[in-house]
Here is the input.
Amino acid sequence: MQFGICAAVESAGDLKAAGADFVEENVQALLQGEVDDAQWNGLQRLRGAALPVLAANALLPGGLKIVGPSLDLQGLRKYVSCVFRRAKLAGIKILVFGSAAARNVPEGFNHQAAREQIVEFLNMATPLAAEQGITLVAEPLSRRESNIINSVSEAMFYVKRVNHPNFRCLVDSYHFWVDDDSLEDLKLAMPWIAHVHVADKGGRLAPGEGGTSDYKPFFRVMKQAEYPGAISVEAMEFIDFKNTAPRVISFLKRAWQEA
Here is the structure.
């Protein structure tokens, strides 16, 4: 199993020393789909990095809405085409579709219409991602952060509706536990799970750093399904990579082994 950490690529040396296998970057920080090619410096930042950047999260900026009356599908097409092209240049294989601010349903807007708009966006974006060898993964977010796609089963509605090999599902332990999602639903979704985020339920801390979560049942489902993907730590207040990351990676490897 490969374990990585969500961080700026400049931290890759410290993360490698801690035992991490990869970095997960941020689309808005690294790929910058709203920045012209002449101003984009993503490849310079990646040059000489000690670890590969396997994935990047935060696919869409908050101001580029995919739900509601201001939907601009042509603008979205231009944006994602740029992001996917740059992701390929960067060697990134997975892009995470969380993006609560972009996908949240505006007050008073019809929820079913919003679902259809998300499907319309994904039907447009997924073939473009496939052309660049990119897999998009839908991230269920807790109801504290988003008012749509809040569970693994809800994310799977979109995966099955879009029905494309380059659109898959992500599970994030923090959101999973906060909203009391079902291990049974996770088992059913495992053939479509292509990426995993982990953080403790208590305060979204890094695994093993004071939260209250038991990873073994969560990991056991993945091991039983022979999950072939990778696992990224996506935690808040995770700054001291030199001292904290070795403990976190060690904790996760032990939990995986014992699951």
